[in-house]
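Quick note —
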Amino acid sequence: MRNTLQLMWTMPMALAVSAAAIASEAGGETSGTVQAQVILTVSEGKRLIAKAVAQMPEVKKALQDGIVIIGRGTTNTYVAEELTGQKIAHGAYVIGWTGPAQGTKTMDSAERIDDIVLVKGKVQPGLSMDVALKELKAGDVVIKGANALNRQRKTAGVLIGGGPNSSSGTTGKFMSVVVGRKAHLIIPVGLEKQVDGDVVDIANKMREPLESLNDIPSMFLLNGQILTEIEALELLAGVSVFQAAAGGVGGAEGGTRLICRGTREQVQQALAIVGSIQGEPMFLE
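Predicted structure written out below.
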């Protein structure tokens, strides 16, 4: 009986020691890790992602001695502002966009601007994406947003026209060049674009030749480096980040709640970065 009792008391103690060791290795409380939450609206997330794109080593190198092509899109409008230092009217650098079926806001009032291409960090007025793609080389950068994201599987897709006269659009133009020339494809995409399911499977389903009662686009799969708000904070502040919740009201519809963990200095830096972008106006007001 005595040996049995001794064993019963010894086992919990051993388990407690083991748990403490695991917590320490995993960056738990014993390692001095702290955490904080941040809440980002969709527009704040776009601004955060854009700031991180500007700090990516691949982008900084291409800005120094190569070519950076910025595709059109809402998130890429913010990216273009961060890389050029110029204010861009919202809607002026967008092709397709998604809005509510009964919405009243429009981008038609914004005067469309030319393709934005940077050569050695300088905007080249009048240089189209088509011409720039001919000069693309290994290490250069193309930046393209997405409409669908499965971050866990590291897959993203972009919607393209699905009508009888549609083509693969700008995505089809640059994908073969990016792959063939060994250029970098950067995909800045907010967590609000996450979809339920495998993006590859979704793209295949959207190609099925069924009769459509209204216009249904197709989807082009993107193969590149995905950058969401999570990767943005990890890059800018050195924290580890996970998404805890999503959505809200009063302007936080589609927003995201993130938990940042790291040293006190890293987490404070993450809070400072987020604080500097909070209050970013909605893309369309």
